[in-house]
Amino acid sequence: MKKIFSLSLLCLLSLVLFAGAVNAADVDVVTAASVSDNPAAFAKALGEEGTWIVCATTDMTFNSELVIAGEFHNKGDESRELYHKVGPYAQDDDHNVTERYTITAPQFTVKSPNTKFQGGIFAGDVYVEANGFTVDDATVQGNVYFAKDEYKESFVVEDGGKVTGVTEVKPDVDIISAASITGDEAAFAKTLGEEGTWIIAALNDLTYNQELVIAGEFHNKGDESRDLYRKLAPYAQDEDHNVTERYTITAPQFVVKSPNTKFQGGIFVGNVLVGANGFTVDDATVEGNVYFASEEYKESFVVEDGGKVTGVTQVVPDIVSSASVNEE
Description:
By secondary structure, the chain is an alpha/beta fold. The protein contains 7 helices and 32 strands.
């Protein structure tokens, strides 16, 4: 009978062969870094502190984007070419695939040169910001977007691989992938803060028992040469930028401390306390009141493209400074 090996064992063997002699403790560390059935460990291993090959041993689902980053070499040998492999599959000793695993995430951002996605299925969109991305005997159930023509021209689909959606160049793909896109309440709230990103997108309805605070100075598209800008986007859209789904964010209050914050496309249930210039409600709804800490902030307030506030919009001095602000 043909002996069956899991991909995890093959990953381990290849790492041992090219790393030289290792002791048992070293083996445990290597396998924990590169072969996993744990989503958190898998996501971490994709990053710059990970390994040249990252193997999944089961289906995995993520509520936020995955990023494969860093420069690695084939088989971990620096004399070889740059190479980063993601292998969500199992195989036998003749390298026949015996099991294909599905990785589901809102997006998969590829920043490592010569990244190969092999053997499994990725359900979501892929954003490519490096040369040499390959889909090998694998399926992307979504679109593949490239930051520039060069990356698209180096793209390879081989050995029965396929992409069910479009493969096209989007020059601002690097900007999109810098967004924090999540369906996780804790991650969404944290990303609103000063250590977050210029744009925060939700994937589903979110409910909080305490206030939300959007804080920090960010620039449009993450480009410091552009205007100060912060965007909160609880909605989904198609390729033509038509809104296909609107999500509801519910909280006792939403404190706006970032200049030029735009709330777009979704619904906020609760009161908004504005402590900065340029707050905008764009094609969105605030089911509550909007209070401004000064007349200046109210004068700079904009409602556009069908946006609406169901309650009052009025100045209440010191409303923000007197709020219980929790930015954790």
